[in-house]
Structure formats: C-alpha cells, structure tokens
Target: ATP-dependent Clp protease proteolytic subunit
Amino acid sequence: MFKVVPPNFPLSNVSKSFSMINLPFHHVPIVIEQSGKGERAFDIYSRLLKERIICLMGPINDVTSSVTIAQLLYLQSESATKPIHMYINSPGGVITSGLGIYDTMQYVLPPVSTWCVGQCCSMASLLLAAGTKGMRNSLPNARIMIHQPSGGVTGQATDIKIQAEEILKIKQQINKLYEKHTNMPLEKVEISLERDNFMTPEEAKKFGLIDNVMCAPTETNKETISGAEKEINYTKNESPENKQPVVNARSFVL
Model:
C-alpha cells in the first residue's frame, strides 16, 4: 500500500528489507548451455533476459526498480521493435520506485507485454495496466488489487500539513494514471480506489486493467508467443497527455 515513511527514516533499511536481491545465491537455479564453444552457465534470470523476459518479483523499492529499469533500457538497445515480456508477482512498494519503472515502460520503444503471476497489488497493478494495450495478461488464479495511498507521518504541524498535501497530490496523479490505462471514468476510478479493491483476473479485465486471462497456451496464444521473436513496427505516442509527471515523494510507498 501507499505508506508514509518519516523523513529521517533510513532508506537503506527499506531497500534491504524489500530487496529480492538478497535472495541467497544457492536458491537461484543455474542453467547450463552447450554450444560448439563449450558450456556456459547462466543464472535463470539472466537466461530469461536473453529471451527478453523480465521478472519483477517481490516488493517494489529502489533496488528492484533500478534493476528493472536497467533491463528495460538494455533490451531496448538490443532491439527497438521486439516485444519485452514483464512477469510481475508483487504486493506493491515505494511510489517513486514504481513510477520510475512506469515512466521507463512508457519511454522505451519496444512494446511491453505484462503478465500477472501470483499477485499484482497496489503499485504492481498499475505497472500491470501500463503494459501495451492488447498485451496485458494474467494467469487465471492470480489476484489483483487497487487502492488509494495511505500512511502516517510525525513531526511539527506544518511538516504534517506538507506531507498530507503531497499524498493528496499523489492520490490524484495515481487516479489519473489508472483512468488513462483503463479508459474508465475518473469518478469510477476514484470510487474503486477508495479502499482495498481485490479483483479476479476476469473482474480486472472488465475494469480495464488487463486484456487477456491466459488459462493455457492455445494455438492463438502460441502464435502470439512465437511472434515475440519477430520484429514488429511500433511507435510510442509521445503526446504530452501520455507523459505523466513524477512527483518527488520518496516518503510514500504503495
């Protein structure tokens, strides 16, 4: 959820507690590839990256955001036309970290296909919805949740007022982003985000967060997957309406 962290809270603690990077290396599978030049070992995430697959797993923070942004930019440098597939299983996280990923997804030239695996809650649901239209997917037993910012702050009355005004600005910004990607009226978006709103994939599809519920790779889906290997013509809409400003609110998390 959106949460307010006191200004003097050590952000290094947030990164350490939220980071999937701290996963013990022996828990990460290693893939061995054989070629005419011999054998080469990859950790599973690096091997998937070769196939233009990004795994965004766990809470969203500055560490996971930096890694995801770097992978998006790298894959764009490899090909500006081949699709990128982003698999998301996240309860949400820090707003600015998530918006950094969001802005990069909108900035890069390749279409970004998003996949909800397990759960996409809070900020993760926004990233799920921010994928290229027609390429936003969920597995059938995943759950998706949207809600408004929340949190708390301590300090002098003036400081509390500043933080309160900032979180209200963030709330409006997030609502407008959901409106943009779901094509829902802003009034309905505001009502839907007022409290924790859990959805099944089918409900999320009706709301406009996703386009497809993928139960099994049908022949059509197989063609879609194989199409990821082909270059396609794709141009981002660079209109100012599609470029939302990022509010510098490091103390809020989603």
